[in-house]
Amino acid sequence: MTIYVIANQKGGVGKTTLSTNLAVALSKKGKTTLVDGDDQQSSIKWSKRRLQDSITTIALKDNLKEELQQLKQNNKYIVLDVAGRDSAEFRSALLTADVLIIPTQPSQTDIEVLPFVLRLVNTAKQVNKNLKTFVVLNKAPTNNKSTEIDAALELLQQVKSVKTLNTILRDRKQFRDAMIEGKSVLEMGSSKAKDELNEFLVEIL
Ligand SMILES: Nc1ncnc2c1ncn2[C@@H]1O[C@H](COP(=O)(O)OP(=O)(O)OP(=O)(O)O)[C@@H](O)[C@H]1O
Ligand SMILES: [Mg+2]
């Protein structure tokens, strides 16, 4: 039983994209439930566009702790997509999760938010000692001449206490298409997006 939480206090960084793609990957290995903790219900909407379903997608109700306790009994994996802000659900999720994945865009303004998130993570770790935390760059420019990624990695080096994945997920149309079609990029034709997602999975699973 493993609980993955995908979170960041920033909006639009790829939390739902990573949650849905991760849930599809995990569902090939065992029963997986995707929990949508965001009022905007992007994960729920994605699941409604899905034709085949190996994944149960549910909206988070009131009590996250109770809900996760119940889900733990008959799932091998739980993926929780939380809202892009500090919230009671986010704090509660940090206390129960096994793995926290924080997607971030490589811009300085996005990375400057991370210390705020990590402060909450460090507090949670005093109770949830085994919480693994990873930061992953997402929507990174595909242009190799861009210096933005190097600048971001340099800033991230200064953010101690968290591992930045080697995988860099770039801005690829296939991630957007997959979302619209209710799929994971794993279920689409071969692409750089799929390669990058696979590389990401090797690092976190
Ligand atoms: N690697 C990527 N390449 C291209 N587009 C991406 C990528 N990751 C996410 N997107 C697109 O960026 C937008 C925001 O992504 P997503 O909805 O996953 O972010 P979010 O963090 O869940 O946002 P919110 O805070 O609103 O919940 C979506 O249109 C999504 O398709
Ligand atoms: Mg979202």
Nutshell version of this structure?
The chain is α/β, with parallel strands linked by helices. The protein has one domain (2-204): P-loop containing nucleotide triphosphate hydrolases (Rossmann fold, 3-Layer(aba) Sandwich).
Strand runs, count? 7
CATH superfamily: P-loop containing nucleotide triphosphate hydrolases
**What is the CA-atom radius of gyration, in angstroms?**
16 Å
CATH uppermost class: Alpha Beta
Percent of residues in beta strands: 15-25%
**Domain module count:** 1
* Overall mean confidence score, pLDDT: 94
Spatial order of the strands forming the largest sheet = 3-2-4-1-5-6-7
Summarize the biggest pleated sheet.
7 strands, parallel
**CATH-derived topology:** Rossmann fold
